[in-house]
Amino acid sequence: MQPQTTQKSAFPWWLVVAIAIALAVAVFIATNDLYSQVFATVAAGIGITIFVTVAGFSLASLLGLGIALMALSGSRWANEIARFYVEIIRGVPILVLLFWIAFVGAPAFVSGWNFITAPLRELGLLDALAIRDVSLLWRAIIALTIGYSAFIAEVFRAGIQSVETGQIEAAKALGLSRWQRFRLIVFPQAIRTILPPLGNDFVAMVKDSSLVSVLGVADITQMGKVYAAGSFRFFETYSIVAYIYLILTVGLSLALRALERRMRRAQRA
Question: pLDDT tens digit string along 80-118?
Fold first, then answer.
C-alpha cells in the first residue's frame, strides 16, 4: 500500500488545475470582445519576445562557454580575466546593464567605429555610422547576452568540473587531443549536469526579456504598456500580459523537465 500512496501523491494535480484555469481563461478571452482585442494587440509582441530570448540566450551561451573554458584553461591570466568578468557582470542588475549598453556602450561603440574607419570614410568607401543606426533591439539583446553570460559561465564551469578526472586522464593516455577530449568525453557527460540550471536560465530570460520594453522595443510588455496607456484598461491589459508570460514560461518549464527525464532514462539504459 505504501508505493500506491507515494504514486498517488506524485500525480501532478497542480498541472491539471493550471491547465484547467488556462483553458477557462482562453475561452473567456475568445468570447469577450474587450479581452479579445487586448489579447490580439499584446500577442503581436510575442514574436519579438521569442526572438530576443532565443538570440540573447544563444549568444550568452556561446560567450559563457568561452568564459568557462578560459577559467579552466590553466592559464593564470585567462583565469583572472574570466573571474573578473564573472564577478563584475554578476554584480550589475540587468536593468542597469540594459541602460548602460543602450545609452553609454552604443554611443561609445559608434565613436570608436567612426574613429577606426576614418581613413576609409575619407576615401569614400564607408559612410559615417550614426547612433540611430544601432537598433534598440540589438542593444537590448547585447545587454541580455552580457548579463546572462556571467551566470551561464558558472553553470558550464561547474558542469565541466563535475566530470571525473580519471576519465580525462584515460583519454589523454589514449592520445586524444584537448579538443577531442572536450568534445568526446567531457562535454557529453557535463551536459547532464549543465542542462537543468541552463534551462532555468532560459526560462528566466523569457521573463527578463520584458525589461527591453524600457527601450521601446515592441515586445509583449511594451505592446501592453502602449495599449493600457491609450485605453486606460490597465487591469485587463496586464492580466493578459501576465497570462501570456505564464503560458510561455510554464510551457517551457514542462518541456525542459520532460527532456531531463528522457536524458535520465537514456543514461540508465
Answer: 999 999 999 999 999 999 999 999 999 999 999 888 988
Instruction: For residue 177, name the pLDDT band (cuts at 50, 70, 90).
Output: confident
- DSSP, residue by residue, 62-77: HHHHHHHHHHTSS-HH
Query: Cβ–Cβ contacts within 10 Å for residue 145, how many?
Result: 23
pLDDT band at 6 (very low <50, low <70, confident <90, very high): very low
Cell reading at 39: 489579447
CA–CA separation, 227 and 94 (whole Å): 25
Instruction: Say how many C-beta atoms besides its own lie within 10 A of residue 132's C-beta.
Output: 9
What's the whole-model pTM score?
Answer: 0.87
Using DSSP, state whether 190 is helix, strand or coil: helix
For 20, 171, 256, the CA distances from 183, given in Å and listed in that order, are: 44, 11, 23
Question: What is the mean predicted confidence (pLDDT) over 220-240?
Answer: 94
- The terminus-to-terminus CA distance of the chain in angstroms comes to 29
Cβ pair 67, 82 in contact under 8 A: yes
The three grid cell numbers given for residue 2, joined into one nine-digit string: 505504501
**Helix, strand or coil, per DSSP, at residue 197:** helix
